[in-house]
Amino acid sequence: EPQTIGFIGLGNMGGPMAKNLLTNGHKLLVNDVVSASVKELQNEGADVGDNPADIASKTSVIITMLPSSPNVSEVYLGKNGIIEAVQEGSLLIDSSTINPEVAKEVASKAEEKGATYLDAPVSGGVIASQNGTLSFLVGGSKTGFERAKPILECMGQNIFHCGETATGQAVKICNNLLLAISMIGTSEAMNLGQNLGLDPKLLAEVISKSTGRCWSSDLYNPCPGVLENVPSSNNYQGGFGTALMTKDLGLAQEAATGTKSATPLGSVAHQIYRIMCNRGYGHLDFSSAYKFIKEDE
Ligand code: NAD
Question: Which of 131, 207, 276, 293 has the highest CB neighbour count under 10 A?
Fold first, then answer.
């Protein structure tokens, strides 16, 4: 049934997710530090909260979609943060990709206040965000999950309960480790093919029916002009920032160190995206790995 939902973080992902909640009949109370993003949601009918604490005092369901761990710590635990004003019985859903340890810390602070916290990072990218077809990877209590599910279904197609607190983040980190590697691999293959004189569209079409097929080649090809409506065909604008992917690979490396897991390709991929950030690619979509490889020739 329709309810008033707090939504904090209206960026590339959060903006379209919030719009899908409105489309599904929910009322929204939103906040972002970028006023243009707030204005866009206001134009769609959302109300605006002064800060996270203000939103927490007025709504009992809050979703956050922020860049990284420090932003999540600030919005939940900082001054005028959610935890300061959260009502007993509230449901707090964080869909940012962050350090699982930070997720555990916020979850325990929420629990002290009698609120339920779920980590619910997403997979699918901006197009899935716009189309409401995201996958949600949820960690936390089963009862919290059941309560969140109908809300998440307004924004996503596959809602997975991964286990206890922070398991959603753990699944997400593993997925993005693989995605980061596959995007670089796809970029290398697409570039080599062109240097061999192949038409990139033909190459992508064959790969999509062959064993090299992956999401990066099939639905998010990094070579400009192969697919419409993907960042590579729009100067790598929008999408999933290289800086954010670098952050996720850092989380993967920390997790790998903590568990003594060997992730040699993940380590190299981390360094490649780090160099891209240092060369000014940080704000471009991570499929600009293709552009980076080409420019290096
Ligand atoms: P983004 O940078 O486009 O959006 C983040 C938003 O949070 C921005 O609008 C920013 O102004 C806002 N924000 C930051 N600090 C804030 C604060 N203290 N209070 C209020 N608002 C604040 O990032 P995004 O691409 O939307 O990604 C969000 C999260 O989702 C990240 O953790 C990312 O790793 C993850 N993710 C992104 C994608 C993708 O394709 N873009 C896919 C899956 C997961």
Answer: 276
